[in-house]
């Protein structure tokens, strides 16, 4: 496989990463275009242990050359990151490569951060592609600052490459199946009181839908955690279920940004500490569910979540830019900057908005006889109803704003006309619509949200 490859540079460093379980990732590479030698590999990350398909360093170099060839005349905006997806059938691999500009040794170079998987893992990887790319894009933003200042970019990239290897390994063994049997969920119980309190289940499902189907389920009993995880995943699409993960019985996984639903076990002291930064960088707000004490908390809605996320991201990159020494701010530290933005670490709030949609669904679904397909059919009808309400809401806003040409001013009329006067119902349908048309929350609520934030900042300054 390595015949015809250019000689491997003696400067190439390699990190072997110890991963628990079978990692489907063959290797990750950081390469750059050298104006004299052409494409050169700077660093290779590879899972440690026996691989069912082994790549030599020469093979990795050949694949890195394939991703960088033709990029020398790349024309892109400053700071842009291009995502390239290669399927090399003759090599039996797929390559996901992120191309960006950066400075190495004082010269501007075209760089590529790539992950390499066997072609047989294509169906497994595709649902997780967006998650991996978004996480790698942000570590590249931080890495470009490190490169500009002459620091070691490899240490920054390792902070995301290694967790992505761990994520893919965990998803290989503990991902939620595409088809969930309702018998393995709370919705199959004879009575709502069998496994959880009615109000708790109602709050959990309602908040789960209000936060676009993103939830964290924590607890001490893995069976109870996984039962709630599977129950919440009933309200997701098959593709979203492939981006959800069950908890591991003998040890806890780390929180992973981007998953829809994930089960996490508490430690021996009965606690689980969520990483603030990773939770804030999740694409959607998140619901926090504790099955031990039956509590449900949720993050602010999409428009406020996006606002906080972008402010924190700018604050983090600004703080990294102002460092005078590589050791001043470790690359994975939560940033606090008094002059621009101090994040509120208490990002989970009580579920404030009651709804009638989920309440009616739960009351009615347990009237149906368990053990038959009736409850599954009723669930499918409920999800179809929410989907149609979301489409109607989008069409209503399009007509009222002439497809975005005018600002939206008639939220009260929308609630009345679409029978969404209950705040919880509105938030659920808005969340469904947000996934159909990204940015809807910001379009409808952003102006009023900015005003309220400015008023709060003025009051706090007195």
UniProtKB/TrEMBL annotation:
Q: Which processes are annotated in GO (biological process)?
A: autophagy; central nervous system projection neuron axonogenesis; endocytosis; swimming; swimming behavior; thigmotaxis
Signal sequence residues: none
Q: Which GO terms describe its cellular component?
A: autophagosome; endosome
Superkingdom of this entry's organism? Eukaryota
Q: Which GO terms describe its molecular function?
A: guanyl-nucleotide exchange factor activity
A Pfam family annotated for this UniProt entry? C9orf72-like
Checking PANTHER family in the record gives:
GUANINE NUCLEOTIDE EXCHANGE C9ORF72, GUANINE NUCLEOTIDE EXCHANGE FACTOR C9ORF72
Stated name of the protein: CI072 protein
Q: What lineage does the source organism belong to? A: Eukaryota, Metazoa, Chordata, Craniata, Vertebrata
Q: What's the gene? A: c9orf72
């Amino acid at each position: 496989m390595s015949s015809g490859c250019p000689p491997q540079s003696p400067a190439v460093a390699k990190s072997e990463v110890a991963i628990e379980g079978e990692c489907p990732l063959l290797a990750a590479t950081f390469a750059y275009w050298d104006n004299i030698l052409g494409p050169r590999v700077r660093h290779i990350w590879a899972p440690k242990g026996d691989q069912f398909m082994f790549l030599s360093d020469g093979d990795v170099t050949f694949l890195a050359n394939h991703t960088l060839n033709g990029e020398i005349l790349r024309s892109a905006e400053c700071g842009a990151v291009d995502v390239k997806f290669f399927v090399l059938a003759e090599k039996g691999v797929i390559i996901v490569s992120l191309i960006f500009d950066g400075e190495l040794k004082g010269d501007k170079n075209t760089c590529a951060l790539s992950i390499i998987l066997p072609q047989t893992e294509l169906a497994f990887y595709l649902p997780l592609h967006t998650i991996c790319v978004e996480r790698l894009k942000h570590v590249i933003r931080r890495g470009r600052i490190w490169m500009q200042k002459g620091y070691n970019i490899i240490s920054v990239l390792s902070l995301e490459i290694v967790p992505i290897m761990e994520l893919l390994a965990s998803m290989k063994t503990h991902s939620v199946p595409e088809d969930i049997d309702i018998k393995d969920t709370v919705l199959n119980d004879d009575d709502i009181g069998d496994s959880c309190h009615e109000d708790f289940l109602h709050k959990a499902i309602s908040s789960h839908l209000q936060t676009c189907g993103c939830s964290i389920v924590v607890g001490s009993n893995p069976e109870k955690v996984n039962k709630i995880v599977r129950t919440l995943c009933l309200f997701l699409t098959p593709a979203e279920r492939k981006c959800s993960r069950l908890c591991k019985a003998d040890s806890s996984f780390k929180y992973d940004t981007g998953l829809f639903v994930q089960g996490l076990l508490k430690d021996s002291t009965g606690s689980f500490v969520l990483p603030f930064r990773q939770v804030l960088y999740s694409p959607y707000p998140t619901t926090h569910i504790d099955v031990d004490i039956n509590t449900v908390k949720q993050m602010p809605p999409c428009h406020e979540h996006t606002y906080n996320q972008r402010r924190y991201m700018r604050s983090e990159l600004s703080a990294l830019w102002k460092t005078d020494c590589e050791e001043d701010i470790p690359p994975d530290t939560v940033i606090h900057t008094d002059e621009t933005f101090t994040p509120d670490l208490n990002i989970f709030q009580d579920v404030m908005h009651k709804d009638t949609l989920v309440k009616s669904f739960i009351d009615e679904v347990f009237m149906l006889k368990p053990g038959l397909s009736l409850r599954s059919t009723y669930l499918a009808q409920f999800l179809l109803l929410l989907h149609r309400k979301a489409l109607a809401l989008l069409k209503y806003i399009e007509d009222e704003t002439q497809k975005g040409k005018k600002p939206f001013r008639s939220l009260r009329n929308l609630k009345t006309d679409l029978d969404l006067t209950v705040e919880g119902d509105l938030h659920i349908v808005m969340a469904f619509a947000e996934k159909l048309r990204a940015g809807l929350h910001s379009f409808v609520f952003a102006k009023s949200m900015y005003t309220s934030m400015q008023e709060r900042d003025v009051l706090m300054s007195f």
